[in-house]
């Protein structure tokens, strides 16, 4: 069955289930949340002020109001933020967590999740002209048509260095085509309950119809960290490897993380260990940051900020957000 057919089938089945009216969660009756929202604004597409999520999408996961207050703390200079306790499945703090916003390279969390789920780390990927990205300022590893590397190598370059050409390399080889891979990304999002998310590419370079929410990113990220390959990669501050070009000549590449906490440009709270994460930035998305961290007892958390005004803002506010753990 084609991906589009499965998507239509899923939509029909969900409409039937929701009509029965048996969806409840966290002690609260939940509204249906399948419709993919649309809109076009330079930063915030649609703010969903009261909409909640159905447990059929997010069983055993924290579900909360669009904003969950924490006494004495308020996020500043960002459009949306959330801190999620993965042990208790609770929302510790949230601000506009159901607001649809652009996500920049946080997209690559889903790219990696789909690739690891449906691919094999040792399979060989071959680049075509689809890896050629000419957008000004786009982060690139310099992959050329005819280059070959394993999925594991490509994922390291994707998640550590945030290379957009690596995203297209992965998408085309795992999906059979980039368009088919994007269908897989959207289907995976729907299956996880991230129904206010829509992907149009595998890298996160701007598209008006490419958006997510803090809550949806939480759903995606908490699924991604179930895979050891992903948690191992995002824990690294650098990566070096050798791959081959079209003529079979070895090419060496070394990349450093885009995570400024790992670069020690900013300090995390003393009681928090940052296990990894993903950065993102475009003019339209602002500064975006998603982190996977643990407290002194080893309890894991996910913290996300979208559309922060500057790098100082996103890392400064992230530190304050993580301090709520204590």
Explain this structure to me?
The chain is an alpha+beta fold. Helices cover about 30% and strands about 20% of the residues. The protein contains eight helices and 13 strands. It has a five-stranded antiparallel beta sheet with strand order 5-4-13-12-11, sandwiched between helices. Strands 1-2 form a two-stranded antiparallel ribbon. Strand 4 (about 80-85) and strand 5 form a beta hairpin. The longest helix is centred in the N-terminal third of the chain and has 18 residues, at about 5-20. Mean pLDDT is about 85; it is low at about 5-60.
Furnish the topology, listing elements before pairings.
Layout: H1 3-20, E1 24-25, E2 28-29, E3 44-46, E4 78-85, E5 90-95, E6 100-101, H2 107-118, E7 124-126, E8 148-150, H3 151-161, H4 164-175, H5 178-192, H6 214-224, H7 228-234, E9 238-244, E10 250-256, E11 273-282, E12 286-294, E13 300-308, H8 311-323
Helix pairs in contact: 1-5, 2-3, 2-4, 2-6, 3-4, 3-7, 4-5
